[in-house]
Amino acid sequence: MERAQHGDVDAYGELVRRYQGIATRTAYVITGTSADAEDAAQDAFAKAYFALDRFRSGAPFRPWLLRIVANEAINRRKAAGRRATVDLSVAEGRPSGDTALSPEAAALAGEQREMLLRALRQLRDEDRLVIAYRYFFDLSEAEMAEALRVARGTVKSRLSRALARLRTVAAGEVRLDG
Amino acid sequence: MASRMDDRTIELALTDLGGRLAYPSVDLWPAVRERIVAGRQPWWRSLIGGLRLPAPVMPIVATLVVILLVVLAVSPEARAKAAELLGLRGVQIIKVPEVPGGRVTLEEARAQAGFTVRVPAALGDPDEVTLEPVAGGARVTLVYRDRPDIPPSSQPGISALVVELGGRLDQNVMGKGIGPGTTLEQLTVNGGLGFWIAGQPHQVFYLDQRGQFQQETLRLAGNTLLWEQDGVTYRIEAQITKDAALRVAASFR
Predict the structure, then answer these.
(1) Residues of A numbered 88-147 whose beta carbons fall under 8 angstroms of chain B's beta carbons: which are they?
(2) Domain total for chain A?
(3) Are residues A6 and A83 in the same domain?
(4) Same domain assignment for residues A113 and A32
């Protein structure tokens, strides 16, 4: 009865399980907190289900979904007030790839990472998103264009603008840290 | 020193950082599924939708409401007793019509529907016509009580229903709500996109005139032919074969 009533809801379940990783990660990059990221991703999947009719068949699902996820996450940030902190942090106890480095080099890499992280937290949500799509999740230019709803040519300029701002913020960080 | 990171170094550092972030990892599906199912409005939710009760209690309350309605329908005495028992004195019980919506004449339906109301010549004049507002427009239902060539349906006194809605069909979403044991076949009917659903479909979906996704629960547990014609979704529900349904569809005027 349950199955008959809800027909192929479970087919959608397969889609959710397939894309929830990147959806939650995308939301996390924007909200910076796990709880908000999970909520935003959950909302996005529910909305996406009821909007499936607006999804052109044959179009790639992932960028379409990410668009909804990013929207949800950005709205959540707006609701919380832009000043709400983005906690974005590095996982503790993650097996580090630095073992091959000398202790000195590893310390330097760690320092560099911290600096980048601090800079990222201060960036606009949209800039963080475009950087994450490219460098964290390795989206292709075509997918980014689709996910950001911009022309392919615009992807490059958005990315370089975001990187330039990241660099500026990072440079400021260094000076502040003296 | 770090401030002089070049482009390549920044890119590599970002790639490295991306792999190290403390991303949450939870299975969202159970919660998402719950939301989707809730969003589809199970029957008991529409009945007692105004009440805010813990979810597990809802079907029980709804069942009690149904039992109460049945009891009330039985006799005036039982009605009075039950009403008194439940502190509902003064509440008027109105018999729920078998087909929802206000009864209208065919002319009224045509004037008010906001789309072209068509009638299948093969079935003759409908015995009843109802018009009701739905999200994004109106729904017109033609009721055929007894038709010698159509076996009676599970709904007493109804052989066939024709339901007309302003809106379009979408082949991507049509399969949703179709349970196991039911077959869905895509066809061309009167030059438009159509579907033949055999077995016991539960619900179908269409796009209303504003382009919003709406669901429709099929009323007769029989076979269904539905198709799109000039921006209107027509549907025949009856215990008839596909060929017979297509003949009826061809006679829509």
Answers:
(1) 88-92, 94, 97, 109, 111-113, 115-117, 120, 131-132, 135-137
(2) 2
(3) yes
(4) no
Q: Cα separation of B69 and B92, whole Å?
A: 11
Task: Say whether residue A174 is in contact with chain B using an 8 A CB cutoff.
Answer: yes
pTM above 0.80, yes or no: no
A20-30 confidence digits (pLDDT tens): 999 999 999 99
Q: Can you give the residue range of the structural domain that contains A52?
A: 1-87
What's the CA gap between B93 and B70, in Å, rounded?
11
User: Is the ipTM value over 0.95, yes or no?
Assistant: no
Residues A139 and A111 in one domain: yes
The CATH number of the domain holding residue A8 is 1.10.1740.10
Nearest Cβ partner of B39 from A50, A166, A175? A50
Mutation target among B29, B186, B207 for the A interface, most CBs of A within 10 A: B29
A10 and A82 share one domain: yes
- Please check whether residues A63 and A139 belong to one and the same domain: no
B136/B49 Cα distance (integer angstroms): 21
Contact map slice: B 173-192 vs A, CB within 8 A: 173, 175-181
Q: What is the pLDDT of residues B54-78, one digit of tens each?
A: 566 666 666 666 665 665 565 556 6
